Amino acid sequence: MKIHVLLAASCIAASICAQASNPLQPVELSDQELSQLRGRFVMPGHIVHFGVTMSSVWENASGQVLAGAVRMQASEGMFQPQFNVSTITQNGDQSAPAAGSGQIYGGEGLSTVNGVTQSVRSAGDFNSAANNFVVNVKRGGSAPNAGNAGQPFANQIESTQAGNVQISASDGGFRIAINALGQGTSLQQLAGGGLQQHANIGGSSNMVRNLTELDVVLRDTPIPASSMGVNLDQLRALRPAGY
């Protein structure tokens, strides 16, 4: 009898020591477990509006501007999402600046990164560049007016003496590419399950901005008790260890 008691005590002590060594050790969830939860906490009918706006602007030292924008929005009651594109070019009052002498090397691996990839590389002087990704979630609002901001989506390119801006479909998404002659290039692409924002500047006194905004409007209604119970049941089904 004493042998059984000592054996049980030894097992309990070993278990306590193992847990006390790192009681907050996280446990990675498998893809199968995550697939059972993805999207389940925004109930059907609660999303009033979903939209994406992507814009890129390049202004060189002479004040010449190359810009493009893509807008996608899907609102309650729409038969299908709406896509619009627009380009803006300004030649300014001066001639194009002299080509920069800066050289940018490498960076090939940036296009293979998953998720959000942002880079700014400058080989010139007095340049300003920024990549921004903004997520806006609102409750209790209504869908914004769809309007007709720009033209229906189609591949297009706009060229001036300062360079060109090209908007095109790519890998199930869309992209905005700017080639500022003698100054550098910028790329913004939302496709293949990821977002890329890059600015490569070889000249001087340039201003580059890449911005992507994700807008979601939710209906502000109380969650039924039955729906809350379903969510809690899904959480209980997860492994009890870890977070």
Calculate the mean pLDDT score and round it: 79
Strand order of the largest sheet: 5-12-1-2-3-6
Summarize the main sheet: 6 strands, mixed
Question: Can you tell me the residue ranges where pLDDT is under 50 for at least 5 consecutive residues?
Answer: 1-24
Distance between the termini: 39 Å
How would the global form be characterised? globular
Describe the fold and architecture:
The protein has 243 residues and is an alpha+beta fold. Helix content is 15%, strand content 42%. The protein is built from 3 helices and 12 strands, in the order ααββββββββββββα. It has a 6-stranded mixed β-sheet, with no helix packed on it. Strand 8 (163-170) and strand 9 (173-180) form a beta hairpin. The longest helix is centred in the first third of the chain and has 20 residues, at 2-21. The radius of gyration is 26 Å and the shape is globular. The model is unreliable at 1-24 (pLDDT under 50).
